[in-house]
Amino acid sequence: AQSVTQLDSHVSVSEGTPVLLRCNYSSSYSPSLFWYVQHPNKGLQLLLKYTSAATLVKGINGFEAEFKKSETSFHLTKPSAHMSDAAEYFCVVSPTYSSASKIIFGSGTRLSIRP
Amino acid sequence: NAGVTQTPKFQVLKTGQSMTLQCAQDMNHEYMSWYRQDPGMGLRLIHYSVGAGITDQGEVPNGYNVSRSTTEDFPLRLLSAAPSQTSVYFCASSYGNRAAKGYYEQYFGPGTRLTVT
Q: What's the rounded mean pLDDT across residues B70-93?
């Protein structure tokens, strides 16, 4: 069985400070992990993905995430927040080489940026 | 490439009415899916298709039908709309398992915001 938990429903940071969005997962299989971003009234856009290559993954807009198997975590970070980062972020898990129906979305974390 | 397109962007229905949400992609992706997004619940899979002529149910299929007659199009039909189907609907596509090396990087449409009164 698979599951994904985003530990914070809402995170608020000041512009220029670091961002940390937390994601824990559970998977019986070797997982692929993704972070997507959704700006208001828009579709979802892929930020980055982990597919069993390097455990530190770099994405677009300065975001990165580290796959930690021992902690079953895939937290998203950015060194310095920008106002344009305000959005909803989704952590997604799916088992590699398995049915697409087993893609599981987290419930989302809303990121707010204070001026 | 237009990517994944969805129409309409907004729709209001009365209970019991039927309608079709359109989805098209121009990336020759094998896999297409429909999700609904409700506050605090992430995205939940309604139906998906791994290629033309092949569809299957996801987590919340009741009240919805799909068909996949071409690679490009994957319409979602609401048979008799209910207030519980008020939601934002997203269509997504990706390369299939073989081409994608075992994982699914999905491309999403802009969504259809549906209200059922």
A: 96
